[in-house]
């Protein structure tokens, strides 16, 4: 093989010799369309003329990149932890200082630069447990909390523990379609069997017990299903599952002996009237000991979403219910190999689960900032749905929660054929054309999975309101033109 | 199975059903001895009487936990990045402010809370490339740099790419004995074949080409060796490989078609006279195009060691030489699933590879602080070796670099038998007894691997000089008493 005139006759690591599971991994949220967006940005910088002057990235839930401002209190305490000399500075409020002192006292040598326990700092896990208790009204044990480097880290770790067997005994894991592609990617990497169950688009992407049973029955023919993953509020679909749906899933998991994994990173992102967040843990315990003594549950949370949107800090946790104590020992051993989650992320998480209280000086600002972020998201969720539903050939379920709209788009037969000629999925072709013509970066529905013959895209609702409005109008304009062109 | 009176008749995830590879993982640095140390600390807090008042943890290279102070400049810039309102504060030096502004300008939305590119922020990768060029005098391409969450993350990722095949075609990876147990743990997790080559204790833990050939020849009988890992400066053994040794390894890798992984996280930790750090990359390129056009090399660095010791931030990078471009695409895809390394760690890394320059206001303090840390470590390395070598039945190679002494200990036959009765490795028994009697937490040599019939322990040289002296004296006292007791 010759590259740049250099011969590599005997390379060790090639496409042919590399880990075949890694080759099977796909991750659309940062896939080809995003790589093309990066290229276009470079071209724009180099002066290449385009029908637009900047690329708008609505492909990923990256809050601060879209202009959301950090919550003052969180950043103040983090700065104090990072450079404790600031504890002498009277510009910082006392409650921020006392939080910083409290956190640093729990760090080795009083420094945020020390390793923590691999499971996470005990103080933070205690604060997480109290947060969960306040949220659910159900006791929580800090020993069952594992801090992580974002939710992705914890989800991958739990999936890894679950995978075993070969052939018909190989572990199968049920994931929704559409899904957040971390799940399919992790399962491919682990060589596990992916079992798809479909969300019901006609019922605002709710889960359906009969569809779960259909999916499971089919999977049992060729693998050993051992877990079910649920994302609520939904990514990419933005729904909030009803309490009834959650009960159905828990009953299903109990009957079918499935380990339940609940991805609840958008738990504060609830917008639609009549919707509320019910944690799987809360519902599980309220269903009584028949379920709460039986169902094994891992639930995941993150510092990257909700009102704070601190993606870069890579903070998160999981709570484990009914985990076999021997397996817990194995889990603790496994996470110790990576030493510890980022301590800055642990500090941030501590503040998220233990924010300023009404009698503390930072409370008014904290409350105002938090409410402003969530209110703006609720407005944008509504606006997005309304505009998309006015476009002929586009229909969008209510964005009840999370940070995404996942509208269904009708594509003309000629567009489908044009895509086929390019070797692209029709919605990838659609999104690529949109990117080239309007500079808007969305993720095609095929990257998340969707019912055969249907097409969608995922768009974040994160851009500032005025920008979002322009984006929505551009998408509308593009959709009309695209439909016309290929009709 | 009944726990706390609750029946779990049909648990999904048990020792029997879990991932068998994970069960095989071992990680001594945070293993049973550290868990016992944590217990003892709790007992002390509860008022249980012990022959000591605190546990001294010399088991892990956790610099700040052992009292090392953070470098002021690093923390100032990180605080500015975290809470940019401080950019208006005249207490911060201008060079710290300009670094913070420069870094924030490279973050999405100007916030350290945004995701970065999965490969790492381009600006940081450029700075890393320039650092490598200054270090080696060899060009470095930012496209070949991948930022990571500590070195462990990058090492695990590269190993994952390399593993394929089944039975005799299953990938084997050569690692040193003694080794840092991340390697054995990652290989167990990946189900790869671990191939041991022994370092030569009689030549200050140097590598030996004939031992490499012996080890490889044996391994070829049952697996397909495809990579060799080298830790230099050495962990747990504290040696600095000579240029000759490095050339031998490169020649060996070239001849035998092995992917070369160089763990160089202690590159600034060089203490012994006549020793210098030679990066594998530098030596590879200085050996000429026959090697530099052929050998595939991944080298790893971290923000956790050297003079800064910022373990909690989880910063690091790897540089890839001669990686197949198609594999690089796969690598980029793989790391994108985890979104990005912690951005605070990336910021820290940027400062480490691009520290204050002589004409900048922070330079004198930075230089003084850095020199003080490294000088103290050099003194402690010498003191440790000297004291250990005075103890009858103990011999310690020169601690040329890194942060550890790995003395060999002679254990009486009766002690070996007593250990056997307890089902413990003899050096585990020794270290456990030391922990119970003196409150000193070390890691037994068996956790790193050692020649059959030899016994060692690893001790960090990180405690403050006065504390370290006390620790060394206590170990000496213990060793005499232990030897006497079992003779």
Automatic annotation (TrEMBL), chains A, B:
<dbReference type="InterPro" id="IPR015421">
    <property type="entry name" value="PyrdxlP-dep_Trfase_major"/>
</dbReference>
<comment type="function">
    <text>Catalyzes the reversible transamination between alanine and 2-oxoglutarate to form pyruvate and glutamate. Participates in cellular nitrogen metabolism and also in liver gluconeogenesis starting with precursors transported from skeletal muscles.</text>
</comment>
<keyword id="KW-0808">Transferase</keyword>
<dbReference type="GO" id="GO:0005737">
    <property type="term" value="C:cytoplasm"/>
</dbReference>
<comment type="pathway">
    <text>Amino-acid degradation; L-alanine degradation via transaminase pathway; pyruvate from L-alanine: step 1/1.</text>
</comment>
<keyword id="KW-0963">Cytoplasm</keyword>
<keyword id="KW-0597">Phosphoprotein</keyword>
<dbReference type="GO" id="GO:0030170">
    <property type="term" value="F:pyridoxal phosphate binding"/>
</dbReference>
<comment type="subunit">
    <text>Homodimer.</text>
</comment>
<comment type="similarity">
    <text>Belongs to the class-I pyridoxal-phosphate-dependent aminotransferase family. Alanine aminotransferase subfamily.</text>
</comment>
<dbReference type="InterPro" id="IPR015424">
    <property type="entry name" value="PyrdxlP-dep_Trfase"/>
</dbReference>
<keyword id="KW-0663">Pyridoxal phosphate</keyword>
<feature type="domain" description="Aminotransferase class I/classII large">
    <location>
        <begin position="80"/>
        <end position="474"/>
    </location>
</feature>
<keyword id="KW-0007">Acetylation</keyword>
<dbReference type="InterPro" id="IPR045088">
    <property type="entry name" value="ALAT1/2-like"/>
</dbReference>
<keyword id="KW-0032">Aminotransferase</keyword>
<dbReference type="InterPro" id="IPR015422">
    <property type="entry name" value="PyrdxlP-dep_Trfase_small"/>
</dbReference>
<dbReference type="InterPro" id="IPR004839">
    <property type="entry name" value="Aminotransferase_I/II_large"/>
</dbReference>
<dbReference type="GO" id="GO:0004021">
    <property type="term" value="F:L-alanine:2-oxoglutarate aminotransferase activity"/>
</dbReference>
<dbReference type="GO" id="GO:0042853">
    <property type="term" value="P:L-alanine catabolic process"/>
</dbReference>
<dbReference type="GO" id="GO:0005615">
    <property type="term" value="C:extracellular space"/>
</dbReference>
<dbReference type="Pfam" id="PF00155">
    <property type="entry name" value="Aminotran_1_2"/>
</dbReference>
<protein>
    <recommendedName>
        <fullName>Alanine aminotransferase 1</fullName>
        <ecNumber>2.6.1.2</ecNumber>
    </recommendedName>
</protein>
């Amino acid at each position: 093989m010759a590259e740049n005139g250099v011969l590599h006759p005997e390379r060790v690591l090639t496409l042919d010799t590399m880990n075949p599971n890694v080759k099977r991994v796909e991750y659309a949220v940062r896939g080809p369309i995003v790589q093309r967006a990066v290229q276009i940005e470079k071209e724009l910088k180099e002066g290449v003329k385009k029908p637009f002057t900047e690329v708008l990235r609505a492909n990923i839930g990256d809050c601060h990149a879209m202009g959301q401002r950090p919550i003052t209190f969180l950043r103040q305490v983090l700065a104090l932890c990072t450079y404790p000399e600031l504890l002498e500075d009277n510009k910082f409020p006392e409650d921020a200082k006392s939080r910083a002192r409290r956190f640093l006292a729990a760090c080795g040598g009083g420094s945020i630069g020390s390793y923590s326990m691999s499971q996470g700092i005990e103080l933070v896990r205690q604060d997480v447990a109290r947060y969960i208790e306040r949220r659910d009204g159900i006791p929580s044990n800090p020993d069952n909390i594992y801090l992580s480097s974002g939710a992705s880290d914890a989800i991958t770790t739990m999936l890894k523990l679950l995978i075993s067997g070969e052939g018909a005994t190989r572990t199968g894991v049920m994931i929704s379609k559409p899904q957040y592609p971390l799940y399919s990617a992790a399962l491919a990497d682990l060589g596990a069997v992916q079992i798809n169950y479909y969300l019901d688009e006609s019922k605002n992407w709710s889960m359906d017990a009969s569809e779960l049973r259909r999916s499971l029955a089919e999977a049992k023919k060729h693998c050993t299903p051992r877990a079910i993953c649920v994302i609520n509020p939904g990514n990419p679909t933005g729904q909030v599952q009803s309490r009834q749906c959650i009960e159905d899933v828990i009953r299903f998991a109990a009957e079918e002996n499935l380990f339940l994994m609940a991805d609840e990173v958008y738990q504060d992102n609830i917008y639609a009237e009549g919707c509320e967040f019910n944690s799987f843990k809360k519902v599980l315990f309220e269903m009584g000991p028949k379920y709460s003594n039986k169902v094994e549950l891992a639930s995941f949370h993150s510092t990257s979403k909700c009102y704070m949107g601190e993606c870069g800090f890579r903070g998160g946790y999981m709570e484990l219910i009914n985990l076999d104590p021997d397996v817990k020992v194995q889990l603790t051993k496994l996470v110790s190999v990576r030493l510890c989650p980022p301590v800055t992320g642990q500090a941030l998480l501590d503040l998220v689960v233990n924010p300023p209280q009404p009698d503390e000086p930072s409370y008014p600002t904290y409350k105002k900032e938090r409410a402003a972020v969530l209110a703006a998201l609720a407005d944008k969720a509504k606006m997005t749905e309304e505009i998309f539903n006015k476009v002929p050939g586009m229909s969008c379920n209510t964005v009840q929660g999370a940070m995404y709209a996942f509208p269904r788009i009708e594509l003309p037969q000629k567009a489908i054929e044009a895509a086929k000629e390019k070797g692209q999925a029709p919605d990838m072709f659609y999104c690529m054309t949109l990117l080239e013509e309007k500079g808007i970066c969305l993720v095609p529905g095929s990257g998340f999975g969707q019912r055969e013959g249907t097409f969608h895209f995922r768009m974040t609702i994160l851009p500032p309101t005025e920008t979002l409005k322009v984006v929505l109008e551009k998408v509308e304009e593009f959709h009309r033109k695209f439909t016309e062109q290929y009709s």
